[in-house]
């Protein structure tokens, strides 16, 4: 299995631009998570999906952030408009079924820089 | 709500020395506990997990962790550290009927030769 695949690996964009981050979970995993990692706040859960349905989006910082999962093999995290404080590493993770006993498998992350 | 504390932000050990990274959790019921490792520029890799049974769990790369309910701890250990173990280590806690993991702030391990 190729693991959780995220794209792009790096993104540099100007303030005010729209940014879309992409994630392909492991085939057969039905839970998907978006995390943000910064020096100041560590790993923060932004949103997670079970069976393509958003379950908890309480970690999404504000309306500029949105996430979708149109099918079991693809998810996007969009920031519009982007701001410098959104600069972080964004991780996607997937899990088999909605039980933490299975653990998460993380992607390699997207390093976002907003200038 | 569950929470995780990793008291040490940085730890430096000599190559070949033993290692213990501390993790304390807060949760009222039996938790699911995990240790992940993150190498620079990489995602998080699962080292080991505990959810029931033997309180001493073995993981990959020679790591082990011991669950101590009385101390609400899940410390990670390795008897002999290798230079390649230099990375950031995260402890995480989950609950049985919920799929959220809460991560600690991480401990950065430096290995000196």
How does this model look, in words?
The complex is a heterodimer of chains A (115) and B (113). With 115 residues, chain A is an all-beta fold. Chain A has no helices and eleven strands. Chain A has strands at residues 5-7, 10-13, 19-24, 31-38, 42-50, 53-56, 65-71, 74-79, 88-95, 105-106, 110-114. In chain A, the strands form two sheets. In chain A, strands 2, 4, 5, 6, 9, 10 and 11 form a seven-stranded mixed beta sheet that branches. In chain A, strands 1-3-8-7 form a four-stranded antiparallel beta sheet, with no helix packed on it. In chain A, a hairpin with a 2-residue loop joins strand 7 and strand 8 (74-79). The N and C termini of chain A lie far apart (36 Å). The model of chain A has no long low-confidence stretch (mean pLDDT 92). With 113 residues, chain B is mostly beta strands. The chains are: A mainly beta (115), B mainly beta (113). The A-B interface holds A 4, 31, 33, 42-43, 45, 48, 50, 55-56, 91, 93, 95, 98-101, 103-109 and B 32, 34, 36, 41-46, 49, 51, 90, 94-96, 98-106.
Name a few traits of the molecule.
heterodimer, A: 115 residues, mainly beta, seven-stranded mixed β-sheet, four-stranded antiparallel β-sheet, 11 strands, 0% helix, globular, B: 113 residues, six-stranded mixed β-sheet
Brief synopsis:
Chain A has 115 residues and is mostly beta strands. Chain A is built from no helices and eleven strands. Chain A is globular and about 40 Å long.
